[in-house]
Design a protein that fits this description.
The structure holds 2 protein chains of 2 kinds. By secondary structure, chain A is mostly helical. Chain A contains 10 helices and 5 strands. The longest helix of chain A has 32 residues. In chain B, the strands form 3 sheets. Chain B has a 6-stranded mixed beta sheet with strand order 2-12-11-4-7-8. A 4-stranded antiparallel beta sheet of chain B has the order 1-3-10-9, with no helix packed on it. In chain B, strand 5 and strand 6 form a beta hairpin. Classes of the chains: A mainly alpha, B alpha+beta. Chains A and B meet through strand 1, helix 3, helix 8, helix 9 and strand 5 of A and strand 5, strand 6, helix 5, helix 6 and helix 7 of B.
Amino acid sequence: MPVYLPIAEMSVDALLLLGIGLGVGWLSGLFGVGGGFLLTPLLILIGIPAPVAVASGANQTLGASVSGLIAQWRRGNVDARMGCVLLVAGLAGSAAGTQLFVLLKRLGQIDLAVSLFYVVVLGTVGALMVRESLRAIMRRRRALPARTHQHSWLHGLPLKMRFRQSRLYISIIPPAMIGFGIGVLSAIMGVGGGFMLVPAMIYLLGMPTTTTIGTSLFQVTFVSANVTLLQALQTGSVDIVLTLLLLTGGVAGAQFGAAMGTKLRGEETRALLGLLVLLVAAGLLVDLLRTPASLYLMGPAT
Amino acid sequence: MILLRATFLALSLAAPFALAPAALAQREPPPAAPPFAGPALAAELGQDRIAVDTSFSGADLLIFGATERLLGPAGDNVVVLGLGPPRDVVVRRRVRWLGLWVNGPAARFQEVPNYYAVAATAPVAGLLEEPARRERRLGLDVLTARLPGPRDPRFRTALIDLKRASRLWNEEESPVEISGGRLFHARLPLPSTIATGDYIVQVLLVRGNRVVARQELPFRVDRVGATARIADVARRLPLAYGLACIALAAFAGWLGSVIFRRS
């Protein structure tokens, strides 16, 4: 069933888009990530022009995150106060990241920079998550008591704030730094940043897995809304028909994913997300190393 | 003789109103032209507007017409050339750097036809001499050789390969069909990725290595219906469009969480 996309100016199979939406939405609900790091490469793979894939991917991420956010909110898994701290810092970070993007583009090799960013960031995050969650699973098997909380220098910083839902009383400086850093990375990589945010909240802030997922969806919702608006204004490459087709599959998937996520243990969820992130990193690395089928590529002159 | 006169009469009568652009044809009278002879070539498009709507998945453009003399191996030949609006294109070569494949040198070509198609009643290379083919841009080799841009032939070959792979350029994929000796028709394939804009089809009548008549038939590729409205709003009111995209996506997400509520 072909459908013509008005902004991408091409015709695609609607069922294929519904399927991609369903799969990415399911992961989004399960892991609390927007799924942008999977969706954008997939759309480019089926022939959607890269700018349209990035912009419409952000728009679809927004819809899927709202869906997941509502599901998590009902379960009381959203720490809105932590979300706001992350969000304000994240918006500042993405503004800075956009400037860095422009600078890299002027130097040439923006494609290489983006690919290397993906491989390094996804590879590091994925490896850390898999290692930690495997340790946690082993510890549980040996029936050792889990360490709940470690006190480090992070807890000695000023500007302390109580985050009731996360059962934390910490300075707002570490979350603000994390939000800013992920904002920079997400602007360069064209993703919401949920896959980096979830592990950062768990390992760096010591938040419980249940609230990290809802809180990450909170942040991703607003960051992707910001990206959608900026893309519509600056590049005009948001394709609403593409977005709505992806979302039709995506919202259904997100609900099933969220329901399934509550059945899995936190460390199992983290291990699976870590493996998925590692898989995408490996795929992108293979792409960089393998001899391409065509040594040439074509694009419109800018 | 009566039959012949009737054919010519029908052609010359039909030409002024049914085949309106026939007046554009540059006719070159044959040595012993009868005084009532019709145009040497009369061609028309099946449609002068390709409508791109939500269900558009590519189209075939029909070109049909008639000639004064017999078509075929022993007689005249017809060449059909379709051209899209020109664009500037950059072709990049990937090179290996520290084991990684990265974008290397780039070549910028100017005024590259966004769409290109050639069809003929016989292979074009055998119909016209090289200079004539080059002048009329008949063949991807002579088309790219004339494009302003760097001289490196590898980039030109790569441009042809990439454009052919995207189905936007094609060369003598299917011939111009002849029926009844003087009637011809051809179909030029338009892929779903075709850009909107003004296109032109040139129909050439070839006799003895020379182009003796020529007709230019313009057509447009336009978005229509919902497709046209969406593209129009996105271009003219980007802020409203962006806000609408956010609202629609958020609404779809909320709707999904209501429909699929499982608790």
